[in-house]
């Protein structure tokens, strides 16, 4: 009896020791980058997600860059990960999409976004979907949208100015959602009784939560939110199918036409997943950027002054000052685009872009083993003092002097390579047009909130409350 017990105990101890040894010393046909794998299973996950109020490179990454250099290994959400803060390697990773690297996100994300979303599709299907979306958000399409964006901005600004205090984070998020939903599915938030956005809110609140799917948890609400939103999208698509419209103008029309073709590879469920991702990807990111933009303007009067001058000049040049914003006027907003670049550089809305290595990859003496996850870290590039002097300063004028040829290596707020964000131009139109309406007609005062927390994604835990009034009004 006793010898058997010792025998089993010994085997267990040996197994566990072996497993632990493997955890801390993973297999590799070469030299792994330095770094720590943290606790078994947990890795360094908790430290990675620890909230911090700094706008600098996330402390988790910064500490390790100082200790290990630009490339280090760690373990996050149960996976071995190589973190890259090296601009050249990041560029290489983006260029090698589909060859040496492919898009990879933690499995909870796949669960949440649907199995067939743009983020996780590869190869042919992916290119096909991407072209479809690029069409939808390309220059021709955006030109047609310009009046809608202007109208929505004016409407929301007017509404805020009628309130004593307006909370900007929620309101911009609502505005962007309205615009995107209108563009994609002609969904009119003002006229609809169902609450599509409410379901997205529940979804987003639980997105960065512990993945425990039992009633009451944020994660459970998140999955429920997605389920309800998907059901609504499905109903809306069905309605359209029953009552087709004469002039094709939105994504639903396009999808229905495509589904009728014999040789199509599009299915209804792929189209609905895509719809969901687009509605999600647009409204959270752009509203964060706009809220931060308003905070920067509140804190930097000289920037506000120059921005206002640019937009007032646009109106002065017009024959009729009340005419609508034109595409040429939009294109002429030089300082505004510098301002937007500087805002998204410091916003670092996407703190990590994930890929999976498909083969062993050698880089500057280290090896990234096949199958490992790689996290490209945009903040480390955007806040590199060698590329951006005094990187934490908000200084839109720095973009005048920056050589934009090499810029793509040092600016990756919208990703890079084949997976470059399809919403980049859409975002810029929305931001620029909103800013135009804001600075030409209104003045405002920050009242409270506006504090930033990063987990490591950007958040405004107390919102940003302002008091907005017409330029000539007394309030
Ligand atoms: C400030 C606003 C935004 C930021 C900072 C941003 C950032 C990014 C980044 C970094 C990526 C690359 C992800 C990767 O390589 O894995 C990306 C991809 C993507 N973005 Fe955005 N985005 C913004 C707005 C938008 C908007 C408005 C839309 C929708 C209209 C959108 C839709 C997408 C989609 C569909 C992808 C996946 C593209 C692909 O995998 O090929 N984004 N975005
Ligand atoms: C943020 O990170 C810094 C540097 O690691 C640390 O000193 C600080 O305690 C952290 N916490 C908060 C809440 O900012
Ligand atoms: C903003 O950044 C992009 C990407 O690097 C660059 O192509 C563009 O010229 C920049 N815009 C301005 C106004 O500097």
Automatic annotation (TrEMBL):
GO biological process, one term: brassinosteroid biosynthetic process
Single GO term (MF): oxidoreductase activity, acting on paired donors, with incorporation or reduction of molecular oxygen
Matching SUPFAM superfamilies: Cytochrome P450 (SSF48264)
Required cofactor names: heme
Top-level taxon in the UniProt lineage: Eukaryota
Binding site for heme: 421
InterPro entries in UniProt: Cyt_P450, Cyt_P450_CS, Cyt_P450_E_grp-I, Cyt_P450_sf
Pfam families the record matches: p450 (PF00067)
Keyword RNA-binding: no
Lipid bilayer topology: Single-pass membrane protein
Major subcellular site: membrane
Subcellular location(s) of the protein: Membrane
Record carries keyword Glycosyltransferase: no
Keywords: Heme, Iron, Membrane, Metal-binding, Monooxygenase, Oxidoreductase, Transmembrane, Transmembrane helix
A GO term from the CC aspect: membrane
Membership in a protein family: Belongs to the cytochrome P450 family.
Alphabetized PANTHER family for the sequence: CYTOCHROME P450 26, CYTOCHROME P450, FAMILY 87, SUBFAMILY A, POLYPEPTIDE 2
The name this protein goes by in its record: Cytochrome P450 87A3-like
Native organism: Fraxinus pennsylvanica
